[in-house]
């Protein structure tokens, strides 16, 4: 332990500050990549000759790969050392970013995004672990504040940066910009972090559990992504994938509950506080992310917005979150976290309900208002939720609980993306049929004919108007369902007992 006791003396204050900035930058880059492609999907789809629906594989493949790799982070760090793994993860992340930018087909970009997610998954928890390792206890709060800011800033900047690059350069550059950042982080980590490397040990890995995890998540995600184009359970392929996902999931649960060294410790679900906390987290992130996915696509495909301006509308939420984060941090320890979480999620639900009344004639600031106002609630939900979940488990289970929490959050984002776009597409078709059934276009046709338009042109104009209105109605339906989910999550939080005060936050990925 003597080597660990003086670990803070291994770096000078200047080296420590530089290392902290590098770790925060690496986390920012990985979080940024979760949303940077959202507004660029229409550009990528057009360039590769695929539909925007197929283009969403670019979002979900990254999120799923990240979710699969997160439970492995602890084992990798113990086996090879946290600094060495961090450096290699950054090198591979940069390499796959370059390959994403060079992709010429859907298959290649999805494969490379999976590689990006597998390498990016461990970077977030490892950067946090290293932050806590290099800063002494009296400086940790400020260091973790900087780290948390990058977690909030990434999703905010992603749509704006992605939109600007897609509009003014080329979508390829949303991946190429990672290369200089990754190179800087690698060389800085090699120069600064080597003295704080962790000890290694030959820890066993649950190979069967890992294989089952990859199998059932893979089947589930392919089913969700292909279902839209294959008429769901009318297609035998989708039925087979659903059955395989269910069998894989049940086998995974049975194996993990009986394994001595499980890849995912499911036993922590016996704590009611943890279970209700992570389920609320999954529901909230899924409902919240539905807006991040659907708003940019709707604005670009139907409302005539550029990717840049669609990104700015989406980013207002995180801008407000940055302003309220210090207030939320100061309230921690003084207010029951359940009250903070429940109030914040209720606030998010009300703002989502507000957005459920958008129309095809809505202006920029009318969209920006609920986006901005809902952002103030985000830190009051995110910060205390960690206290609630990790404060509900035993101290020795904290690392497993934190990994599982991050896994469920990432999976919720991936599944929500698929379900939301499916619901949006189905809602558009239903709304279009309903509108066409009650349409009385005689007056419009005669008015357009009087200004010299042909019959075909008149039909096309009316069809375009119906399509635009159907899309807007479908967006409103998505927001209404999301609001109902958020209200359920706000109530669910109160099922958890009040957490203990002494929570070890060092494992909170």
Helix and strand layout, with pairings?
Elements: H1 2-5, H2 13-35, H3 41-48, H4 52-55, H5 57-69, H6 73-80, H7 82-101, H8 106-134, H9 137-168, H10 173-176, H11 178-192, H12 207-227, H13 236-258, H14 272-301, H15 307-331, H16 337-355, H17 364-375, H18 378-390, H19 398-438, H20 442-450, H21 455-492
Helix pairs in contact: 2-8, 2-9, 2-11, 5-8, 5-12, 5-19, 6-7, 7-8, 7-11, 9-15, 12-13, 12-19, 14-15, 14-18, 14-19, 14-21, 15-17, 15-18, 16-17, 16-18, 16-21, 19-21, 20-21
Subcellular location: Cell membrane
Main location: membrane
Membrane topology: Multi-pass membrane protein
Indicate the CATH class of the largest domain.
Mainly Alpha
**Strand count, sense and closure of the main sheet?**
none
Determine the fraction of residues in helical runs and give it as a percent range. Answer: over 70%
- Looking at CATH, which topology of the largest domain would you report? Growth Hormone, Chain: A
The count of DSSP E runs of length 2 or more, i.e. the number of strands, is 0
Which parts are unreliable, with pLDDT below 50 for 5 consecutive residues or more?
1-5, 504-509
Structural class: mainly alpha
At the fourth CATH level, what is the homologous superfamily of the largest domain? MFS general substrate transporter like domains
**SSE topology string:** HHHHHHHHHHHHHHHHHHHHH
The rounded distance between the terminal residues' Cα atoms is: 25 Å
Can you describe what's shown?
This protein has helices spanning 2-5, 13-35, 41-48, 52-55, 57-69, 73-80, 82-101, 106-134, 137-168, 173-176, 178-192, 207-227, 236-258, 272-301, 307-331, 337-355, 364-375, 378-390, 398-438, 442-450, 455-492. The chain folds into three domains: 1-203, Growth Hormone, Chain: A (Up-down Bundle); 206-262; 270-509, Growth Hormone, Chain: A (Up-down Bundle). It is built from 21 helices and no strands. The radius of gyration is 24 Å and the shape is globular. It has 509 residues and is an all-alpha fold. Helix 6 crosses helix 7 and helix 14 runs antiparallel to helix 15 (307-331). Keywords: Cell membrane, Membrane, Transmembrane, Transmembrane helix, Transport. This is Inner membrane component of tripartite multidrug resistance system. Pfam families: MFS_1 (PF07690). The chain crosses the membrane at residues 18-37, 57-77, 86-108, 144-165, 171-193, 205-224, 236-257, 278-299, 305-327, 339-356, 376-394, 406-425, 477-496.
């Amino acid at each position: 332990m003597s080597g660990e006791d003086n670990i803070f003396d291994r770096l000078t204050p200047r080296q420590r500050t530089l290392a902290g900035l590098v770790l925060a930058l690496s986390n920012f880059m990985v979080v940024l990549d979760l949303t940077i492609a959202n507004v660029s999907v229409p550009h990528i789809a057009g360039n590769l000759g695929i539909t925007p629906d197929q283009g969403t594989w670019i979002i979900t493949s990254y999120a799923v790969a990240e979710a699969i790799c997160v439970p492995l982070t602890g084992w990798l760090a113990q086996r090879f050392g946290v600094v060495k793994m961090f450096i290699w993860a950054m090198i591979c992340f940069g390499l796959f970013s370059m390959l994403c930018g060079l992709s010429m087909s859907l298959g290649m970009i999805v494969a490379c995004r999976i590689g990006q997610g597998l390498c990016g998954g461990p970077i977030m928890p490892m950067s946090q672990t290293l932050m806590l390792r290099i800063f002494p206890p009296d400086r940790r709060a400020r260091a973790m504040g900087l780290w948390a800011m990058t977690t909030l800033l990434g999703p905010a900047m992603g749509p704006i940066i992605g939109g600007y690059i897609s509009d003014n350069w080329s979508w390829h550059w949303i991946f190429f910009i990672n290369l200089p950042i990754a190179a800087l982080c690698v060389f800085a980590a090699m120069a600064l972090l080597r003295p704080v490397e962790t000890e290694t040990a030959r820890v066993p890995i649950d190979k069967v559990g890992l294989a089952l995890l990859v199998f059932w998540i893979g089947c589930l995600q392919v089913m969700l992504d292909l279902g839209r184009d294959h008429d769901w359970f009318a297609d035998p392929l989708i039925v087979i994938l659903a059955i395989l996902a269910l069998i894989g999931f049940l086998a995974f649960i049975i194996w993990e509950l009986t394994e001595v060294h499980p890849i995912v410790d499911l036993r922590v679900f016996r704590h009611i506080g943890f279970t209700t906390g992570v389920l609320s987290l999954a529901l909230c992130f899924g409902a919240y992310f539905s807006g991040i996915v659907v708003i940019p696509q709707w604005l670009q495909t139907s409302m005539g917005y550029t990717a840049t301006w669609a990104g700015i509308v989406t980013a207002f939420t995180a801008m407000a979150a940055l302003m309220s984060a210090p207030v939320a941090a100061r309230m921690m320890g003084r207010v029951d976290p359940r009250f903070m979480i429940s109030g914040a999620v209720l606030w998010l639900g009300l703002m989502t309900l507000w957005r459920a009344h958008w129309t095809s004639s809505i202006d920029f600031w009318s969209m920006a208002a609920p986006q901005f106002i809902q952002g103030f609630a985000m830190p009051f939900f995110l910060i205390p939720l960690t206290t609630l979940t990790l404060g509900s488990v035993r101290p020795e289970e904290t690392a497993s609980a934190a990994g599982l929490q991050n896994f469920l959050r990432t999976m919720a984002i991936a599944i929500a993306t698929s379900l939301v776009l499916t619901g949006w597409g189905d809602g558009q078709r239903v709304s279009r049929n309903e509108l066409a059934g009650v349409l009385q276009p005689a007056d419009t046709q005669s008015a357009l004919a009087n200004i010299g338009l042909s019959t075909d042109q008149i039909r096309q104009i009316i069809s375009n108007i119906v399509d635009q209105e159907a899309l807007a109605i479908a967006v409103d339906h998505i927001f209404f369902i999301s609001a109902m989910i958020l209200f359920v999550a706000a109530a669910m939080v109160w099922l958890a007992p009040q957490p203990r005060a002494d929570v070890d936050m060092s494992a909170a990925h």
